[in-house]
Amino acid sequence: MKDMEKLRERFLRDPLPRRLGGLAATLGRISSSARKSTDPNIVSNLLDEAKHIIEWTAADTEPETAAELVRMQTLLTLWQRAWDEASQNPKQRLLLSVQAKDWSDKAVDFSGLV
Q1: Rounded-to-integer distance, Cα 86 and Cα 76, Å
Q2: Do residues 27 and 100 lie in contact, with contact meaning Cβ atoms separated by under 8 Å?
Q3: CATH number for the domain that contains residue 64
Q4: Nearest to 100 by CA among 62, 44, 59
Q5: Do the Cβ atoms of 66 and 59 come closer than 8 Å?
Q6: Range of the domain at 41
Q7: CA dist list (Å): 7 to 3, 4, 51, 55, 104
C-alpha cells in the first residue's frame, strides 16, 4: 500500500495533460497486450494501472471529461474481473484491444497533447 501511495504522490506532481497522456499510453499498452500477450496477468495489471490513473486524475478534469473517465473506469473494472476467462477467447481479446485503443485515442484528445 505504501508503494501505491508513493506512486500516486509522484503521479500527481505531473500536470494534467501529462497525466492524461500517461493514461493514453497505458490504454495503448492494454490494446497491444490484449492482442499479443500470452500472460493474462500482464493485461490484468495494466487494467489495474489504468483504473488507478483515472482515480487519481478524473477529479481534476472538466465534468464531462470526468464522467467519461469514470465510465471508462467502470468498463475497465468489468474487463479486469472477466479477463481470466476472456483472455482464452480470441474474439474477446480483440474486443478489448479495439475498445482500449478507442479509449486511448479519447485520452489523448482529453490531454490536448496533439
Answers
A1: 13
A2: yes
A3: 1.20.120
A4: 44
A5: yes
A6: 2-111
A7: 6, 5, 14, 13, 21
Query: What span, in angstroms and rounded, lies between the C-alpha atoms of 57 and 65?
Result: 10
Tally of residues, the chain: 114
Q: Hey, how many other C-beta atoms are within 10 angstroms of the C-beta on 12?
A: 12
Q: Total structural domains in the chain?
A: 1
Indicate the Cα dihedral angle 81, 84, 85, 87, nearest 10°: 110
Query: pLDDT for 53-109, tens place per residue?
Result: 999 999 999 999 999 999 999 999 999 999 999 999 999 999 999 999 999 999 999
> Whole-angstrom Cα distance, residue 8 to residue 71?
21
What is the per-residue burial (b if ≥16 Cβ within 10 Å, else e) of 45-54?
A: ebbebbbbbb
